Structure formats: C-alpha cells, structure tokens
Amino acid sequence: MSRSSAHVAAALLVTGLVLAVPASEAQTPVRILGAVQWIAGARMQLMTDTGGSIAIDLTEADQSSYQALRGGEAVIVDGIISSDRRRVVAREIWRDSGRGYWTQSP
Questions:
Q1: Phi and psi of 65, rounded to 5°?
Q2: What is the dihedral of CA 20, 87, 98, 63, to 10 degrees?
Q3: Tens of pLDDT along 54-83?
Q4: For domain 3-97, which CATH number applies: 1.10.10.10, 2.40.50.140, 3.30.70.660, 3.40.50.460?
Q5: What is the pTM of this model?
Q6: How far apart are CA 56 and CA 43, in angstroms?
C-alpha cells in the first residue's frame, strides 16, 4: 500500500466517511494523531486536530501503552481499519512525553 492511500484512509475516517472505505482497504495500516476524548475498558475515542472524532478498539494494543491515559492527552495510534470500517483497531499507542519525543510506556 502506498503512503498516500494510508493518508486517504485516515482522511476518510476523520471526515466521518468510514463506510466509504472499500473493503480492500479494511486492513490498511493507519497512523492517527489526536487527543484522547475518553477511554473506558477496551475502547477509546480520539479527537483529531481537524476536529474529527474516531473510535479506537484497544483489544490488540498492549495494555501498558494506554492504561494511564487521560482525557486531553496527545497520542499517536498505529493500527488498522476494522473489518466493519467503523473504527480503528489499535496495534500501538504512543503518547507525547512532553520532552520532544513520543513513548509507549506510562
């Protein structure tokens, strides 16, 4: 997959046109930068810089990468578009350390 198609898939998610993503794109890797709106159990809602809201499935991410996250925290989520194209299944979550770099652990 080309870098531009990943950006297109992420843009479709951000604009709320998730259902418009072709089935062939469902396993497309995406990277999303945003702020945590809320987190509960194995679900998180992310607000992007452009104002879009994206549902994140945390079942495949390492729990230590999200267990201490709080609303408003800046994160990068690496994952794939779910098969139903309604959310992103997180594989890795990186948080802003506040020191100019991103970390995976709390």
A1: -80, -10
A2: -160
A3: 999 999 999 988 988 999 999 999 999 998
A4: 2.40.50.140
A5: 0.71
A6: 6
